[in-house]
From TrEMBL:
Gene3D superfamilies linked: 3.40.50.2300
GO biological process: phosphorelay signal transduction system
Name of the featured protein: Response regulator
PROSITE patterns the UniProt entry points to: RESPONSE_REGULATORY (PS50110)
Keyword Phosphoprotein: yes
Family annotation (Pfam families): Response_reg
4-aspartylphosphate: modified positions: 55
Keywords: Phosphoprotein
Domain Response regulatory: 6-120
Length: 136
């Protein structure tokens, strides 16, 4: 299990950020909210989150372009994309960028739960495979 499960939620729509945050917290995760990709990128909190939930289409840097920049910096945090306009092309771009899930707005509680459980399971397996600090 994740020791410190934090989700960064990035969406230019405040009501979506707040609703997603409430859902994430009800599932036992902590949430940090950002109004833009630029705000998240400048936050200094890139490496200490377990998962990112990001809108695809936002003013300025899109969610997909933001994630490409993160990957380019070596930040491989799992990402769940959400979009009100989830066309097949958008879905393909999201998965090609490395998305764990691509959800349509309004997001369904069951879908978010399933995606976060997948992230949690993967993080638990990865941490179990790591040797304890100081072990050789």
């Amino acid at each position: 299990m994740c020791n410190n499960p934090i989700v960064s939620i990035i969406d230019d729509d405040e009501s979506v950020r707040v609703a997603t945050s409430s859902l994430v917290r009800s599932l036992g995760w902590k949430a940090r909210l950002y109004a833009s990709a630029e705000q998240f990128m400048a936050s200094g909190n890139l490496g200490d989150v377990t998962c990112i939930i990001s809108d695809v289409q936002m003013p300025g840097i899109s969610g997909i372009d933001m994630y490409r920049q993160l990957v380019g910096r070596g930040v491989l945090t799992p990402i769940i994309f959400i979009s009100a306009f989830a066309s097949e092309k958008t879905r393909r771009l999201a998965f090609d960028a490395g998305a764990v899930c691509m959800l349509s707005k309004p997001v369904d509680v069951t879908d978010v739960t399933r995606c976060l459980e997948s992230v949690r399971t993967h993080a638990s397996r990865a941490s179990a495979a790591q040797p304890p600090a100081g072990a050789r």
